[in-house]
Amino acid sequence: xxIPYTPSDWEIIPHIASGxxxxxxxxxxxxTATHRITGETIIGTTDEINTxxxxxxxxxxxxxxxxxxxxxxxxxxxxxTCLTINSILPAIAGGAALGVGKLIYTFPAGEIIFExxxxxxxxxxxxxxxxxxTPVIGIGTIVAxxxxxxxxxNAAFQSILVGTAVLNCTGTKLIxxxxxxxxxxITTTSAHxxxxxxxxxxxxxxxxxxxxxxxxxxxxxxxS
Length: 224
Fold this sequence. Notes:
Elements: E1 10-18, E2 28-35, E3 41-44, H1 46-56, E4 63-64, E5 68-75, E6 78-88, E7 97-106, E8 112-124, E9 136-140, E10 161-165, E11 174-178, E12 184-186, E13 193-201, E14 211-222
Antiparallel strand pairs: 1-2, 2-3, 4-7, 5-6, 6-14, 7-13, 8-11, 8-12, 8-14, 9-10, 9-13
């Protein structure tokens, strides 16, 4: 019985035996391959498992920022990156407009085509001062800075996900999917880092370490 190879992120075990084999090999075995992180399951013969698992192995993936965990899924050049974020924003002084951002992911070197993004994420205050503030959240290839209350002041602040206002800063999640009118081509020499950006006119006293937590999914292609 030939057993498929076992990459580190897949567990492969015999699945079923049937009596349809030859005299020399009376049992034909199928195998179950289960991804240790995502739970995805594939059932097939040795050759089928080897082919499908090889295609699904994470290749040409990026790097996460501090406070972010990535689960990568790809077939050939097509990637879907699920980012679980549990981090804090830079200090917000309050009493004025301010944009801040946090590095969450960096694409691998080369040409990238960004296709869509989804977010399910909220901001939670830590001092009780910005509870009712409604800043906008977006994702871009440049970190938001300066006295801004929206992210549209610079297209790169929200090139991956257009800024949208949250209902509050007490943890209510912003749920949104963004598909650009035309796929965004990130050339080899362009910025490859993705920042979760936040901007608003903040209540006096602000928050020194507001928490950002939730899920971001980025769908993209690695072209070179």
